[in-house]
Every structure is written in C-alpha cells, then in structure tokens.
C-alpha cells in the first residue's frame, strides 16, 4: 500500500464502496430520519407548545412541563407503576422463563406436545388474552375465584383490587412466557455437554452444576431476556388499558367516565398517559412531555443494561 | 435411555451416580429409584405447568359455546353447546372486514419489512465502513423506542399533512424502510455466515447485490422465515397502532381493535365476546402449527446467544 | 462527511422539520356553509348507539328523514365513542363525519371553544327556531359553552329512584322515601345480612356502584360546580360537603365500606340481566330512565317502582328534581355539506314526530317542549316520572367545561378516596379538588 498519496483508482474504489454502502443502507437511513429523528425533534418542539389539534399551536414555554410534573395527578402513579413493572414483571418473567425452559428440556415423554402447550399462550393476541384473563379473574363471577372459593382459599379481587391488579397483569405476562421459554431452551441445549460431565466427575451436585456450568453459559441470553423485557415494559399499553376498561365495566354508554388506571390508578402506565393527554384531553403539548420522559427512561435503562453487555455489537473479526 | 430424540431434548442424563461405585446392585437400584423420582417430579411439574397454560384456552372456549343466559352464571361447563355463537360472531358486520384488514396489514407489512431490512442487515454485517458501529447503536436505540414517544407528531404528520388518518397506511408504509428488530436479528444471523462464501462469490465476479441475493439469501432462509413470522405476529397483534390511526374509520379496523369494540357493543354477551376471542386467536395458532419448525429453528439460528 | 457538515445538515433538517410542522398544524375549516341543501348529496352521521333496538330506532328515524328530504342520503355509523369522534374531527378530511352525536355532554366545552363543531346560531336563526322556546332549560345548558351554541339536545336522560315494590311490602314500607332521612331509614329496613355479607341490601352507596356516582348523587343537593368567574366551587358550595357527609353516614349505617365493597364485587354486569337491582341484590337504586325497560325485558319477577330520588331534609320542597343529562348532536365544522347536515340535525332535534317516535322506541326523555306535550308520546307510569324529573325546574346537570369531564373525574377520585377512608379531612379534600380542577382548566385554556 502506498504511504503518502492515495492512488486515484483506490479513491474511485472507495467512492464506489461508499455509494454501495449508502444504497444498501438507504431504506433504513430514510426510515430513521423520517420515522425516528424527525418525530423525536418534533416531540421536543411540541412539548413547549400548546396545541389542541383544532386551533393553531401557540408557544407555551415550560408550562406543560410544570403541569405534568407538578399538577397532573396521574403522572407520578404511572411512573411508580412503570418502575414496579420493570422490577417485578421483568424479573419474574425471566426467572419463570428460565424455569420453564429448564423444565421443558427435562421432559422426556411427548416433549413436542408439552412444548406446544407451553408456547401457545404467547401467540394469543394481547387484547384477546387480556379479555380472557379479565373474564377468568372476575372476582365475583369468574371461574378462578369460584374454584379457589370451593377449596376454601382466599379469593383476591384481581383486576378490581388495586393491590392485586399489577400481580394479575404479571400473571398474564407469565402465561405468555412462550417467547422466553424458546430462547432459554435453545440456550440451555447449547451448553457443552463436556462441561456438565467434567463437573460431575468433580463431584458437583445438580445445584452446583447449575450455578457453575449452566448459568455462566446462558448469561448472554439472560441479559437479552432482561433487556427485551425492559423494552416491552416501557411500551406496556394494551394489556393494562384493556384490563382496566373491562374490569371497571365502563363501556361508554350513558356517558360514564372511564377512570384511567382502574382501580385507583394502579394499572396506569406512561404510554397510556400519552394517549390520554394527547388524544382524549386535547393537550398534545403535555402528551409530548410524557413522551419525552418515556424516551429518557427507555434510554436510561438501555444504557444501564448495555454497559454490561457490549457483545450486542459483536462484529466478525 | 436412547439418544435418538431430536436436538430439542435433554442434552444428557446421568447414567451413573457420582457417589456409589458404579456397577454395584445397590447403586443400580438407587440410581433407578432416583431416576424414577426425577421422572415423576419433572412430569408432575410439567403437567401442572401445562394446565396453567392450557386451561385458560379451555375456559374461553367453553364459555364461547354457552348460551347467552348460561354465560352470565358462574358455570364452567356448557349445558347446551351453542356452536352458532361462532357463526353469529363471524357474521357480525365488520368482522370479515377486520380479518381482511389485519391480513393486509400483517402480510404487506411483513413483506415490506423483511425486504427492506435485508440489505441493511447485510451491509451492517458484511461491509466495513466508518460509522458502522454508530449505525448499529442507532439501530439498537430505535429498537428501544416505545412507539408512544413519537406518536403525537407522527399522527399529526399522517393525519393533517397526508390525510391518511382512518386508514392503515400510516402503519404499513414505515415498514418499507426497515424494521429495527428485523435488522438486528438478521444481522446477527448474517454474521455467522462464513466469509468464504461471500469471498468466493466476489471472486466469481458477483457484485454485492448479486452476492446477497444469489448466495446469502438462500442460506438465510430459516432466519428470514423467523423474522417474517415475528413481524407477522407483531402486526397481527398490534392494538395501539390501529387505535391511533384507524379507529375513526370502522372500515379500517383490525381484529385486535375490533375485538375491543366488540366488547363495547356486546357488553353483556360474554359468550359472544369469548367466541370472538377464539376466532381472533385461532388463525395465529394455526399458522404456528404449520410453521412451528421454521419458527423455533429460526429463533435459535438468529444467534440470540449474542 | 466531515463533522461540521454533519452538524449543519442536522441543524438544517431540524429547522425544516419544525417549519413543516408549524405549517401543518393550522386548525381546520371554514365557518360558512356554502353548500346547496337542495342538491343531491350524501352526508355521514355518527352516533353511539349499539343495542339492536336502539339501532333499529335510529335507522327508522333516518329513513323518515330521507323521505322528507329525498335529495339527502345519510350514511350511518353506530357504536362510535368519543375517542373516535375526537380523532375524526381533528383529522378532518373526507373520512370525517358531517353530523355527530355523542352520549357524553363532557366534550361540548372543547368542541364549542375550539370550533370543532360548527356554531349553530346562524342555522337556528335561518330556520326560525328559538332555542329557549323549543328546548328545556337544562338541556340547553349542556349543549353550549360560554355563549357558544354548537350542539343541540337529542333526547335526554333523567335519573331517579328505582325500588323493589315487593321488598317494600315485605319490609312494611308503604311509599317511596322523599327525604334523605326517610331514605336512610328505609335502606336500613330493607337490608338483610347473611353471614358476613348480605342477602339483600337496601341501597349500594359505594361510588363504584354503577350509577351511584358522586355527580349523580350530588345533583340532589342542587350544587353549583363553578362560580361566576369559572373557578371550581366544590369547597365553597356547602352542597358538596353535605352530600359527602350524608354519604359517609349511609356507608357506615349499611355495614361499612369494606363489607359493602365486597358485596359489590359479586354484582353482575350493569347492563345485563344480572344487574343487581334486577336480581334483587339491592332493593333501591339510582338509575336512568332506561332501567325500567331493561328490567321488563329481563323479565324481573318483582314489581318495579319508580320515583324521584329523595332530596335533603332541608330542601324537602324541591322533591321531584334529579340529575339530567342527554345525548348531544352537532355539525362538524370540517364538513363541506353543512346546510344538508343542518337539515338532518333540525329534523332529528325539532321535528316533533321524529323526537316522539325516537323517544318511544328507546325509552329516553324527549328533548323538546312540543314533544313532551305530544299525545303520541307513549308514557307509562315510569316514563312519566322521568319526564317530570327532566322538566323540573330544580333539576341540574353537570356543566360543560373546557377540558371535558376532567373535573368530574377529579371529584370522583376524591370520592373514592374519601369513602374508602383513605382521605378523612373532607374540607381539605374538597379544597384539593378545587385546586386540581382549576389547575387542569388553566392548563387547558
């Protein structure tokens, strides 16, 4: 390779290469600018504006921000709920997913049938699944409480009880564990058999084998599950909304008010607030403030988790 | 125990205990007993778990075939089997429209997303250029983005500027410009294709486009099948998107959104609502049955191992 | 690309984006109606009714209209909620409706002030209709905002007391209660406990109990929600404090909040045959005029009694009043066929026969004086009661506000906390409601 000047042919080759790169990347480049960067800038812009969707937007300074953080009674409960969901729902899902993944690798009789049974709920569309669960967990007339009652067990209020609504949502999330089950199953099967055998020869019991052979090998997948779990939780919208609507029995006839986050704001999530402010309350400015909070949270969690796992970028050598 | 099962079974089972000297009769009996206990434990857990996963479907189905009156009681088993409920739901005005719209959205969206994501993934996996890591980081950050963050300006853009509110186009068109998750998964997979294949193609005089289409694409079929299925299910199950863009025009509703409105119109008829739920869940399950192998293989192949 | 060119590019893009946005956002519409109402035209009408008999009734109404105006064809869409209305009105365009009707009066404030609904005053003048002479007072109240009349009432609802006549007989009560002290006494008499629950409850006071909401009950005290300057009046007007004190007393006397709440979770759906009043789980309930018809349809085994809801002892002479609300109808400002749309609105709201037949079909309260006096109005005893409640000069409604029903939600939220004992300081709580409502309105202004 020549040292000082760049050979014209090399320059031409490089230019061709750059054009080629751009060509291949073009769909995403356009998509990124139009459907990510531009709207993000707009969201920041609108968060300082007062715009109800009908009359022209006017400058509102920091009023929207002050309103959301100080005067909007739904904001802090939604934030708390989001944190609860990130901590509790994500961790229970990962642990349960790992457990089910382990279980499925150990089932010898009709493993295919079990696998299908475990996976099926994941395919249920969220609206359908939530309505089904709201029906099943109806405290008064649902089958679950009927059976619990028959056995003399406590019958919680599920989606109608503020202390039970998030656990009920978690139960729904555990029901749809199929996606995590599959990736954990694949990861578990990938653990080299030799390592297990070596551990056994060293006299390791099953728990020690799990801790020192299984876990280290599957840790990238656990990380992946946690990260995707957090992403999903940030966007958690359909299930809590539908659950609240169905449980509160409000169907809009006779002009009844729907109580966001029924019961008692316990199922409120930030995405629901964006919809409530922006599309029901005609306050798109404040909706954008919440959107930015959501964005900041998502980025923060991502950065936190990605610091430990730069392997996502693992490039070929 | 034989080792003739498919890859998706347990990797190893201890054939000899680590404590007693192998070969003694006591040891063998202890081993068999332990193995038997383990078998019972594992399979009891398995059945309990299976019940947890399957029973809701059963209840939903049973309620779906109850009569109007019985659905209001707490009964678990239908006294008469009202199969006609499915027909009633199917003939509800709009139901077929919802089907058609969901199929259109999911089908078209998937094709566009995969077709546009493949070259991007290819570039990110195979080309070396300055800013590749930055690009990858941006793709990942897009993956993290909740759609609600940008929904307000996006809605204004589609509704006011382009007048496409009340249709599904605001959801379908962006898919033609790559989908972050699809790009990510495809890229991870493409990284595992050895350089030798692309090098060989280049030596044969193929440009990058041809290499991608003729050499890499056939090898990537399982990964493509997997991301296509992911994308399809995502669109099929999407509720937020149709709520924002299509809610004002019932002719554009999808199954997810229509199901929720169904409850609104039939708030007393849990049996009909559950029948509708069954009809919305069923196609997805059917598709899964046919695509099962591709699906599960694809998940493992896309190298989520990182 | 070098670093600085990249930054410049981003800056330019951002500026372009912002200017694009600013231009995109101007509100819709012209305020004039220039279409020829006699030309052949198709207009779209959205409404919220979904039950089969209601849909049949409204379609019959439309057909009758089309007969009178053969050049106007109406495309009807039912089961529309306010969310969808908001979206359509905001987006405008060809998919937006021309005529819209909504069950909630809540958004009238926003629709009028933002001009999403067309101002109907010129149309009313043109057609020679004097609203004050045509429509009952409270109905006029909830269809306008700060002087802007952008909607008209399309049938109304009134709330009253439903009582189980058989249960009354069994408990030795000869007539429905007229004052709150009579009501409390009767409710206690009608309550039969069973174990740690009830076999029959006199009245379900808990605010989640379907229609026994804060706003419906507060109406019996004739409250004023906003003072003349538009500020929330909840802490100043003694009506609210009285209502909440009465409510606390009722809850305590009937068994306490927890026990009542547990009983409430055993109730069936409000709208199906398992409605707790219809099953006999509660002997008295506050509900709208539709309940009589629904109970009859469900074939309840007992005799259903209807009366105005009781009034506070110190307002005994206002007995007969109640909470009223209704469906509203308006013309979308983005419509290019406003004159034709007005013909439909005029027909549905002022044509006496149309109003009467619609009211008969769906058992709602007619919304014009003429209809209320019409001999064609099929009024059984129950319906008569509600008509009287609707016409009672002391009946009240929840006023429109610029941010819709938010203030009602705020009051409701306080009610939930107060009844559960989570908030015990009534005065402070009501003040809190005022502050929150004022803040929300300031934000929306």
Note the overall shape of chain C: globular
Helix and strand content put the structural class of chain C at alpha/beta
What is the assigned CATH homologous superfamily of the largest domain in chain C?
Answer: Periplasmic binding protein-like II
In terms of quaternary structure, the protein is heterotrimer
Helical/strand content category of chain A: mainly alpha
The amount of helix of chain C comes to 40-55%
Number of separate domains of chain A: 2
The global form of chain A is flat
Mean pLDDT level of chain A? 84
How far the N terminus sits from the C terminus of chain A, by CA atoms, comes to 21 Å
CATH topology grouping of the largest domain in chain C = D-Maltodextrin-Binding Protein, domain 2
Low-confidence stretches of chain A: 311-317
| Biggest interface and residues each | A-B, 113 and 105 residues
Describe, in plain words, how this protein is organized in 3D:
- The complex is a heterotrimer of chains A (317), B (306) and C (445).
- Chain A has a two-stranded antiparallel ribbon.
- Chain A contains 13 helices and two strands, in the order H-E-E-H-H-H-H-H-H-H-H-H-H-H-H.
- Chain A has helices at 8-47, 63-71, 75-106, 111-123, 126-136, 143-150, 165-175, 178-190, 193-201, 206-234, 238-248, 270-280, 284-307, and strands spanning 49-50, 58-59.
- The radius of gyration of chain A is 25 Å and the shape is flat.
- Chain B is mainly alpha-helical and 306 residues long.
- Chain B has helices at 25-64, 68-72, 84-90, 95-126, 132-143, 151-161, 169-172, 180-191, 195-203, 208-219, 221-237, 240-246, 255-265, 270-301.
- Chain B starts with 24 loop residues before the first helix and ends in a 5-residue tail after the last helix.
- Chain C has 445 residues and is α/β, with parallel strands linked by helices.
- In chain C, 45% of the residues lie in helices and 14% in strands.
- In chain C, a hairpin with a 2-residue loop joins strand 7 and strand 8 (197-203).
- Chain C is globular and about 70 Å long.
- Residues 1-11 and 22-30 of chain C have low confidence and may be disordered.
- Chains in contact: A-B, A-C, B-C.
- Chains A and B meet through helix 1, helix 3, helix 4, helix 5 and helix 8 of A and helix 1, helix 4, helix 5, helix 6 and helix 11 of B.
